Amino acid sequence: MAETHPPYSSFKKLSSFFNGITAVSGVVLIGLGFYVKFRGAALTRVLGLSHAHLHHVGYLCLVLGCVTVLLSFTGWYGVTKENRGTLLFCSLFMIFILIMEIGVTSVVLGFLPTVQDMGLEHNVVTLRTNYKGFNEPDDYSTDWNSVMEKLKCCGVKNYTDFSGSSFEMMTGHAYPRSCCKSIQTVACDGHNVSTDIIHQEGCLPKLLEITKTQSFNLSGDSLGAAVIQLPGILATLLLFTKLG
């Protein structure tokens, strides 16, 4: 005798499949959170408040990713046991997460012009006030030294940002050693501003480019996760109605 199947067996298989896809989207969100946290985070940290929203959104992606993975396994359990309560809970919670992901996309893209507009003057003033020098142990100076060495740049706009700064008043130098193309060279004396000695380009354009890349990755992947999760939510709700 041929094996009989309940009329909703196809919906169970479909829902189980999409729960697996949802779990993958959760892993993507977790990876996205780590990407924002560790890739370029130390460099763009010097942008201060104008960049802080990316870190907050990165942490949010980590949380949403972990919850999504847990919900996908819970949903799979609900499908296997044909538990309507579990299916409804997972569906409603996933709708909330989907809305949050769309919100992440909107916030990140909405803040990007603000970061670009407030970046220049704010960071020039902050650099002139708070930067101490090449070997200073404070976090702000350390971060800026790391930025200038790794991105091969000097100051926010260029080396003239240090003119009249706290750094110049304390050391008498026109620029720090981290601006030099070769820190060990004798010509890197804080006064020689030749193009052969120091980097002439400012760091802000490069920092904004990193920020823009992170913003587009965050928004694109968040929206992509939402699109991937939508069929799973619909399949689970459809199974919920079939079990009623």
From TrEMBL:
Keyword Transmembrane in annotation: yes
InterPro entries: Tetraspanin/Peripherin, Tetraspanin_animals, Tetraspanin_EC2_sf
Superkingdom of the organism of origin: Eukaryota
Pfam families (alphabetical): Tetraspanin
Membrane disposition: Multi-pass membrane protein
Primary subcellular site in the record, as a coarse category: membrane
The name this protein goes by in its record: Tetraspanin
Name of the coding gene: TSPAN16
